[in-house]
Design a protein that fits this description.
Shape: elongated
Order of helices and strands: EEEEEHEEEHHHHHH
Strand order of the largest sheet: 1-4-5-6-8-7
Largest sheet: 6 strands, mixed
Number of helices: 7
Mean pLDDT: 75
Distance between the termini: 52 Å
Low-confidence stretches: 13-28
Number of strands: 8
Number of domains: 2
Structural class: alpha/beta
Helix content: 40-55%
Amino acid sequence: MGEKIEKVDLSKNPILRRETVHGKLGVLDVLVEFNESEKINLEMQVAKREDILERLLYYWARLYTRGIQEGEEYVRLERTIVVLITEFELKGLEELGYHTEWKIIEEKGRKKILTDKLEIHILELNKIKGKENEDDELLDWLFFIDNPKSERVREAMKENEELQEANKKLNQMSEEEEMQRIAWWREKALHDEASLKGMGRREGMAIGEKKGRLKGKQEEKEEIAKKMLQKKMDRASIMELTGLSEEELKKLE
């Protein structure tokens, strides 16, 4: 893909699928339509799969054939691209670089490409190690995916406004997730406290256990409040979201 993408539309039936590997995001698929009609399926893989290449071809075929309806001409089929980003090395590609591009090509001369409607890009993050000083915009983005807080990324953001914007969006997403987590813990704590008040003496042991859990949750809320204070958030919002009092906030400071 050497050409510049002018427009991206994420509203055309986006696919988001997650598989957890030891609590880490294992798969993220995003279907993108760009330049009005062409399609890209972007897949990120953490878990190593033996069937990954078959899976790529299957995704490509599904996207490609969705381009026409029954009775329409085949010429209406559109260019379809699959992009795979992995944290592991693919079997058989050990000697190749971190970015490989695949098309249907004539075997003997290996110069004539049959069609531009099939295109597969494979990006292997484990192969970028040691390339921190190489000047390549694609590497900037791969290092951003691998570790957005790395020195390479901080240097690249000084000149790359798109990378700056991506980092800003990533930080916003992280803050939103943290706020949702705070709200969830606050609601959970209120339910637990209400349950404790309604218990009788015969459940004293269970109450003790719940109080222990609440203590742990209190400590977690305090840790979250510390982060919010460091970010200079207003005290009223911190108290509302964490359920902590003004006196408790003063102690944290």
